[in-house]
Amino acid sequence: MKYPLVAASLVAGAAILFGQPALASAAAQDAVAEARLQPGEHEVTLNGLSFHYTVKGKGPVLVVQAPGWGIGSAYLRNGLAPLEEQFTVLTYDTRGSGQSSHAVDYPTLNESDMADDLERLRRYWQLPTLDLIGHSNGGAIAIAYAERYPDHVHKLMLVGTQLIGFSDRQANKEQAAWRRADPRFKLAVARFGEDAPKQDADFTQWFRDTAAYYVYDPVKDGAAFLQTVSAPLTGAAYALYTSSAPRPQVPPLSALPTITAQTLMVVGRQDPVCPVSVSEKLRQEIAGSRLLVYENTGHFPWIEQSQRFFSDAASFFR
Predict the structure, then answer these.
(1) At 105, is the pLDDT very low, low, confident or very high (cuts 50, 70, 90)?
(2) Closest Cα to residue 273, out of 71, 53, 92?
């Protein structure tokens, strides 16, 4: 649904009629900003790229940063829906993913460029600062944003986050070992080791087959997660993202102390791709940051430990 800026024109016109041009300008700007954050689906073109974003809920604005490798934002929009009871939740598809621009004429997909995309969107939304959630690779984008634009992040929640330039291969191997030993993960383990297809339909099915790999209990939580993946994934974005490494534009690990936002990390003890050690590194480097480790939890804490997660998130952002 598109939102015309009729309100802005009416308010501005009334103010001008009564001889208050300065008031008219301010009122018009406020009306424009309000229209851009009205509940519903929106599209905007910035710097030559089209971005699709969705606004739901009521209360303080909470921006959700999706990963940039082709999964889009639907799984977060659906999975984090309980936050809409207390917050205006704003989700958007990164460049190349979901319903945002699929142009392939840019040479790379990297976190640095996507952090700049978020800054353009922040200015468009006319938000002085952001309360920001980033999950997985979305967390890496949020970290890059908080490093590059520290004055524009108020609170930062990093969930099962990736940290570019830092990994724990031993922890990943240990998680992979017990999954290989558990027959419930058989299909997920087999497909996880395959090369990802490039066609959207095949790539989406490949991801759905691997989804159980990411959770602690595939029987209880695998299907619940898949219910939130309501839109096709973008194979071309994944191929471009994975071919863009290394990422010299991303701020180095030494830049982490420049983050001034109030920061909370939440991670599952059994996260197979973004282990606890990643979040521990962030806690060491970001002044005043806090870390919550959920036991018996993989990569999707809001699915696997929903009651605790939404209580912790609401408390942090309130």
Answers:
(1) low
(2) 71
